[in-house]
Fold this sequence. Notes:
Layout: H1 2-13, E1 20-23, H2 28-33, E2 39-48, H3 51-62, E3 75-77, H4 102-110, E4 115-118, H5 124-132, E5 136-139, H6 145-149, E6 152-159, E7 168-182, H7 189-195
Parallel strand pairs: 1-2, 2-3, 3-4, 4-5
Antiparallel strand pairs: 2-7, 5-7, 6-7
Amino acid sequence: MKKVKSQTRLLRSGQESKVKKLTTPLNEDRIISLKTGEIVLITGTIYTARDAAHKKIVESIKKRKKLPLDLRNQIIYYAGPTPAKEGAPIGSCGPTTSSRMDSYTIPLLEKGLKGMIGKGKRNEEVIKTIKKHKAVYFLAVGGAAALLATKVKKAKVIAYPQLGTEAIRELEVKDFPVIVAIDCKGKNIFERKKKG
């Protein structure tokens, strides 16, 4: 609980000297400049997608069908937001466990996806593919779903509405707080913690 509170304080402030600002869509220069452990505030468009949506995207890739979004240089946030309260663009939107997406991630990276936001570790194949395609994996703080929702300025369903909370949503975010967990060189925050 102490850890979540301290992370939440840091993310609320957004004023730490080591905080980097990042605007989407991503490009190689921006990605190369990111280092594991850095705190980043993302502004721009990101997309939500969880396992059910990932499965449908990968099926479309295999069948060579048109995808519901252009993945090139985009960020997917592993989240299934709760329904919005009146006057709010979105409900709570905390991160989902990223390993649930591991079996679907490589085809998306091969299609140009450059960033992912979630929580927890990734498998070795995903890490190798992040490195190969110069992508980045960010952590969003678990337990801070209501705080993260305040960083979402607009939200709309763009694909698979039948999936309910797992539909793909386009989010417009401002200063959405994340931590670089795996950088484009394959440096992994979880490995650093083990060694330290």
